[in-house]
Amino acid sequence: QYELDFAHADALTTCDRLTYLRLLLRSAAEETGAVVTFMPKPTEKAWGSGAHMNMSLEGPDGTNLFVTGAGRDRSWTPLARRFVAGLIRHAPALSALTCPTVNSYKRLVPTLADGSASWAPVWAAYGYNNRSCMLRLPDNRPAVENRSVDMSANMYLAAALALAAGLEGIEEELDPGDPVTEDTSGWVTGAPHLPRTMAAAVDAFEADPLVAKALPAGFVSSYVDMRRREWEDYHRVVSSWEVDRYLFNI
Do 82 and 173 contact (CB within 8 A), yes or no? Predict the structure, then answer.
């Protein structure tokens, strides 16, 4: 597993770069007789493959609007907190685009099969440099990091709804509450839980009023239908886990 990073740019350019990166890696792997996968959770014992989305807003003069000051004096602005609050409000619906496959939700668990931390978010919470939260406000860059996004996402769609959610938070002056300081992987209750399945995320997506405002009705209807059919296909499959657990034990 490899982590790849590239410099920030405007949203459309960044989505283009990520799309090109996936094509480039597939081609490079094929040329060397290897394979590459962007499956969020290819094995139960491995860490998942995320695609953390880092977002910031700039003013007309290019000033970053999420922070003030620099170095030790740097602080997050009220506008950044409101943006975070919008993302938290719409986290369930947003998950249908940022985590769009059945397999995506195998990644969004607090621990791996051996009990060690997965470092994938489970709760719609935020914290300063807290890697266990869905939203991290990092120490080393002036951007809100959404850690729930994975590599199966269509980044154009995910970025569009994420921006709409953040802007709603700013417009309505939403308050995200206090930042989380502890490791959320051991939480039983707390902040709103991210959807546990693709089916739950799609239900939230269809019901969220912001989705109807931000995305075309025809797309929303087609997307919901496509993902529900995918869920039904998955739900018909009897897994080896079920056979091992139930075949001779009930």
Answer: yes
Residue 74 is predicted with a pLDDT of 86
**pLDDT at residue number 154:** 97
Mean pLDDT by 10-residue block, N- to C-terminus, for the chain (250 residues)? Answer: 90 96 96 96 90 96 92 89 98 98 96 88 95 94 96 97 98 97 87 95 98 97 98 96 95
CB distance 115 to 171 below 8 Å: no
Q: Are 93 and 205 in contact (CB under 8 A)?
A: yes
Q: Is the pTM of this model over 0.85?
A: yes
Could you tell me where the DSSP H helices lie in the chain? 11-31, 78-89, 91-98, 104-107, 155-171, 198-207, 209-214, 217-235, 240-246
Answer yes or no: are the C-beta atoms of 40 and 152 closer than 8 Å.
yes
Three-state DSSP at 72 gives helix
Measured between alpha carbons, how far is 99 from 171 in angstroms, rounded to an integer?
26
Q: Count the Cβ atoms, other than its own, within 10 Å of residue 71.
A: 5
| Crossing angle of helices 11-31 and 155-171, rounded to 10° | 150
Q: Would you state the structure tokens that stand for residue 189, as one six-digit string? A: 């209750």
Instruction: Give residue 237's Cα distance to chain centre.
Output: 26
- As a 3-state breakdown, the chain gives helix, strand, coil percent values, each rounded to 5, of 45, 10, 45
